[in-house]
Amino acid sequence: MQKFGGTSVGTVERIRNVAKRCLAAQRAGNDVVVIVSAMSGETNRLLALAHEVTKIPDAREMDVIASTGEQVTAALTALAIQEEGGKARSFLGHQVKILTDGSFAKARIKTIDGAKIFDALKQGKIAVVAGFQGVDENGDITTLGRGGSDTSAVAVAAALGAGACEIYTDVDGVYTTDPNMCKAAKKIDRISYDEMLELASLGAKVLQLRSVEIAMKHGVPVHVRSSFSDVEGTWVVKEDKDLESIVVRGVAYDKGDARVHIDGVEDAPDSMARLFGALAERNISVDMIVQTAAAAASSTGKRADVTFTLPKTDLARAKPFIEEIGKSLGATGARYKEDIAKVSIVGLGMRSHSGVAAKMFRILADKNVHIQAISTSEIKVSCIIPLADTEAAVNALHEGFGLG
Ligand code: ASP
Ligand code: MG
């Protein structure tokens, strides 16, 4: 089971290399199923075309368009394998079939029918499956969200009972932090599903979050590696004693969120339920939430200030609702801040070590980085900081927790 990302199939020459890799794996005695992404840049190009035609394109038609990128690569890859003297057959999402729910652009896989793939394998063929796409119960084409071919790959691996899922990409594995941000970043040899899940949701972009969830649920070991070399990459696996002994495995950052601050909300038992309920109804997902007693007392009773973060891309859409619900809760005003970043440390060992958060705050303080909000889980600590301090913070944390 192998998956090739956009840069790995970015040119005809590279598709030929993919074909050679697949044939080598088959010659080594494996049944080979390969999942392909669209050629690099192609999905962006397709989505942009739709936006040229109309400002707010219909979601169903968007998926029909976006899914064609993978359709092209799947057939080209099958042709390249045949050209090398092998046998191959391409499959689209609806042919396999990869059944999803009907949420266009972010569909979730429900079931996968492996029968056609098994048939192809039995005939000695390499099965080439288009990633990113599925089909819903109405027969409409769906896509799985940006980076969704990872999820296709892991889900197909789980459905077929593959021993592992190899994700070929343009980096040679998962790093302790973004190497573009920190020169001392190192490749991680093994990482647990839980840690990878946190890193993926905190801004590391190597694997789509959903693919890690599926890998964890079905216990599929995932090997993230480079398609341009033969070196071992990073294995994403079940946790064990070795993995647990590391306190901090990686540092992540995310510049995608904006901060909202609402002043003087009436401090009633259902205030928070009404505020966040209104946002949830509009499909706006918030992340960190901090509620504090309002600085300014009021004649009308107890007041609270609320700070939370949401995706920058949702801010424009959310503002009117925030103003509206804020007013109905008696708020005196709302402020928005886009020049923020979230930096996070992640590691299984935090469960059994104390003082990890304190150490993080000390490291940031020594760099004069002002912390604006904090959130923690069992295996991560996240801080909202000024955007301009991101690089300094990431580097300091990376070094301070001995990752370099
Ligand atoms: N081609 C899709 C995207 O760019 C899916 C993928 O590459 O995983 O998001
Ligand atoms: Mg990707």
Quick summary:
Helix content is 37%, strand content 25%.
Notes on the protein architecture:
By secondary structure, this protein is α/β, with parallel strands linked by helices. The chain folds into 2 domains: 169 residues, Acetylglutamate kinase-like (Carbamate kinase, 3-Layer(aba) Sandwich), CATH 3.40.1160.10; 164 residues, 2-Layer Sandwich (VC0802-like), CATH 3.30.2130.10. 37% of the residues lie in helices and 25% in strands. The chain contains 14 helices and 20 strands. The strands form 5 sheets. It has an 8-stranded mixed sheet with strand order 3-6-2-1-9-11-12-10, with helices on both faces. Strands 13-18-20-19 form a 4-stranded antiparallel sheet, with helices on both faces. The chain has a 4-stranded antiparallel sheet with strand order 15-16-14-17, with helices on one face. Strand 7 and strand 8 form a beta hairpin. The longest helix is centred in the last third of the chain and has 17 residues. It is globular. The protein starts with a strand and ends with a helix. 43% of the residues are buried. The model has no long low-confidence stretch (mean pLDDT 95). Bound molecules: aspartic acid and magnesium ion.
Give the SSE layout:
Blueprint: E1 2-4, H1 12-27, E2 33-36, H2 42-53, H3 59-66, H4 68-83, E3 88-91, H5 93-96, E4 98-100, E5 109-112, H6 115-122, E6 126-130, E7 133-135, E8 141-143, H7 149-160, E9 165-169, E10 190-192, H8 193-201, H9 209-218, E11 222-226, E12 234-237, H10 241-244, E13 250-254, E14 257-266, H11 271-281, E15 289-293, E16 303-311, H12 312-328, E17 333-337, E18 340-346, H13 356-366, E19 373-377, E20 380-386, H14 390-400
Parallel strand pairs: 1-2, 1-9, 2-6, 3-6, 9-11, 10-12
Antiparallel strand pairs: 4-5, 7-8, 11-12, 13-18, 14-16, 14-17, 15-16, 18-20, 19-20
Helix pairs in contact: 1-4, 7-9, 8-9, 11-12
The structure holds aspartic acid and magnesium ion (MG).
The site of aspartic acid (ASP) has 13 residues, from α7.
